[in-house]
TrEMBL record:
Domain SAM-dependent MTase RsmB/NOP-type: 161-443
Protein's UniProt name: RsmB/NOP family class I SAM-dependent RNA methyltransferase
Superkingdom of this protein's organism: Archaea
Transmembrane spans: none
Family recorded in the similarity comment: Belongs to the class I-like SAM-binding methyltransferase superfamily. RsmB/NOP family.
SUPFAM superfamilies (UniProt xref): S-adenosyl-L-methionine-dependent methyltransferases
Biological process, per Gene Ontology: RNA methylation
Annotated EC: 2.1.1.-
Keywords: Methyltransferase, RNA-binding, S-adenosyl-L-methionine, Transferase
GO molecular function, one term: RNA methyltransferase activity
PROSITE patterns registered for this protein in UniProt: NOL1_NOP2_SUN, SAM_MT_RSMB_NOP
Species this protein is from: Promethearchaeum syntrophicum
C-alpha cells in the first residue's frame, strides 16, 4: 500500500484525534510527542502547521465572503483548517470530506454550513485576495514564509533566493532524500550490495555517506543495518561539522551542546572510538538518551555531564584543556523548517535575540576551555547572519580561521568581505538544512568579551 492510500485508509479513524491535536496547537497548548507515532496524524499536523498562515488567510477570506464572523461560527476552526488543506493541497471532493467528517457527529445545520464553506473555497482567487499587498506580504502569504524570516534575510539574499530555499525546505520534507553515514568501508560495501536497487547516491564529499529517497526510509530502518547500529541518519550539514573537525585518537574533545547525541556518536566513530569525549547538555532527559546510543557502537571513552554549557561543571586536570570543541549551538532553527515546520511561526526578534545572547556566552565558554592551538567547530542550523557570520566577525582577534573545502558555499559577506573559514549549506544547492559552519583555531589564552 503506497503512502497516500495508507493515509486515506486511516482517515476515518484518525480525524477526531487529528482535529483534537490541531485545536491544541491553535490554542497554543503543548503537544505531546506521542502523536508522531501515528503516521496519519503526524503527516497532516506537520503539513497544516507548515502552511499555517496561508491556510489561515484562505480561511478568513472565505468566511468573510460568506459574511460569517467568529461569533456566528458553529464549526470549530480545526475542522476548517483541515478542510482548506484537503481542498487546495489534496483536491478532495465534498463527498470525500463529508465521509471523513462522519465520525464527528456534526449536526444538520453544521453540515449545511460546512458544505457551503467547502464549496465556496472554489471561488478563492489569489489575484483578488492579494490585491493591495506588498511583495513581501504576497510572498509570506502565498508561500507560507514568516515575514520576519524574509525581512531578516533581505540584506543577504534576494526575494527569489529566499523563496526558492523556503520552497525547497517544504518540498524535501515529502519527496526529498534522507542521509546516512555508515561506520566502515566494509559496511558500506555490504550496504551497496544489499540495496543497490534503491537508486541511492553516494556523497561526493564525505566518505561512507549515502543519500536515499525518502520513500525507502521505512525499509532501511527495518533492515539489519539499522537494527545493528551500522549507520546513523543525519543531515549532511550536521555530518560535515564533525567530519571537518576531524576527531583523532587520544584527543580530548568536548561536545558542548551534545543532546540528542548523534554528533557525539559520530565523533566516537570517526576517531575509531579512541578520542576522549566529554558530552555536555543542560537537558537531562535528552542527555540520558546518549548513553544507550554510545553503548551500541560500542564506545567507552566518553563522559556525559549534565550542566549548562555556559558554566559546564568540568574540572580541569593539571590545567589540561580540550584539543577540540564542537559547539553546535542552540538556535532559531530557521534552517530546519523541513523537519520542524512549527519553528516557522516562532521566528521573531525576541526569539532571535535570546538565541544570539546564548550563543555569545557559549562561544565565550568554548574559548576558555579550549587549549591554545585547539580547534573550535561552531555551527548553527540557521539562515540568519546574527547566528553565524556576525559572531565570528567579533572574535577574529582571538582565532585563526581554518579554510573550508570548496564544496561548502561561501558564507554571507560582512562589510563586503567573506570569511574564508566560514561557510554555508543551502537547501537549493546542497539538498540539506540551512546551516552555518565555521572552523577556528585558538590563538592564545586571552579571555574574550
Amino acid at each position: 500500500m503506497n503512502a497516500s492510500k495508507k493515509l486515506e485508509s486511516e482517515s476515518s479513524q484518525g480525524i477526531p484525534i487529528l482535529l483534537e491535536i490541531i485545536q491544541k496547537y491553535l490554542d497554543h497548548q503543548i503537544l505531546l510527542p506521542t502523536y508522531k507515532n501515528d503516521t496519519y496524524t503526524k503527516h497532516y499536523l506537520m503539513e497544516i502547521i507548515r502552511y499555517k498562515n496561508k491556510i489561515q488567510f484562505i480561511l478568513n477570506k472565505t468566511l468573510r465572503s460568506m459574511k460569517i464572523d467568529k461569533t456566528q461560527r458553529i464549526i470549530h476552526e480545526n475542522l476548517l483548517f483541515y478542510a482548506v488543506y484537503a481542498f487546495f493541497w489534496e483536491k478532495k471532493s465534498w463527498d470525500k470530506i463529508k465521509n471523513e467528517s462522519f465520525p464527528l457527529s456534526l449536526k444538520k445545520d453544521q453540515i449545511h454550513l460546512f458544505k457551503q464553506f467547502y464549496e465556496r473555497l472554489s471561488n478563492f482567487k489569489w489575484e483578488y485576495a492579494l490585491k493591495g499587498k506588498t511583495k513581501i506580504e504576497k510572498l509570506s502569504i502565498q508561500d507560507a514564509i514568516p515575514t520576519f524570516f524574509i525581512q531578516k534575510l533581505l540584506p543577504v539574499m534576494n526575494l527569489n533566493e529566499i523563496q526558492s530555499n523556503s520552497e525547497k525546505m517544504d518540498v524535501q520534507a515529502r519527496i526529498g532524500n534522507f542521509t546516512i553515514r555508515l561506520q566502515s568501508e566494509d559496511e558500506l560495501i555490504d550496504f551497496e550490495n544489499k540495496f543497490r536497487h534503491l537508486n541511492f547516491i553516494k556523497d561526493e564529499d564525505i566518505p561512507k555517506t549515502i543519500h536515499i529517497p525518502l520513500k525507502h526510509k521505512a525499509k532501511i530502518i527495518a533492515s539489519k543495518f539499522y537494527q545493528e547500529n551500522k549507520f546513523i541518519i543525519q543531515d549532511k550539514s550536521s555530518i560535515a561539522s564533525v567530519y571537518l573537525m576531524n576527531p583523532q585518537e587520544n584527543e580530548k574533545i568536548c561536545d558542548l551542546c551534545a543532546a540528542p547525541g548523534m554528533k557525539t556518536r559520530l565523533i566516537a566513530q570517526i576517531s575509531k572510538n579512541r578520542a576522549n569525549i566529554v558530552a555536555v547538555d543542560f537537558n537531562l532527559t535528552r542527555l540520558k538518551q546518549i548513553r544507550p546510543m554510545m553503548q551500541k557502537i560500542p564506545s567507552e571513552n566518553y563522559h556525559l555531564i549534565h550542566g549548562d554549557g555556559i558554566h559546564p561543571p568540568i574540572r580541569e586536570i593539571d590545567g589540561v584543556q580540550f584539543d577540540k570543541i564542537l559547539l553546535d549551538a542552540p538556535c532559531t532553527g530557521s534552517g530546519t523548517f523541513s523537519t520542524h515546520p512549527e519553528l516557522k511561526w516562532r521566528q521573531n526578534l525576541k526569539f532571535l535575540n535570546q538565541n544570539v545572547f546564548l550563543q555569545e556566552k557559549l562561544i565565550e565558554r568554548a574559548y576558555y576551555i579550549l587549549k591554545p592551538g585547539g580547534i573550535l567547530l561552531y555551527s548553527t542550523c540557521s539562515f540568519y547572519p546574527e547566528e553565524g557570520e556576525l559572531h565570528i566577525n567579533k572574535i577574529l582577534d582571538k582565532f585563526e580561521i581554518e579554510k573550508l573545502p570548496s564544496w561548502i558555499s561561501p558564507c554571507y559577506k560582512i562589510n563586503n568581505s567573506s570569511l574564508l573559514g566560514a561557510g554555508r549549506f543551502f537547501p537549493t544547492i546542497h539538498n540539506t538544512n540551512g546551516f552555518f559552519i565555521a572552523k577556528l583555531k585558538k590563538k592564545s589564552n586571552n579571555y574574550i568579551y
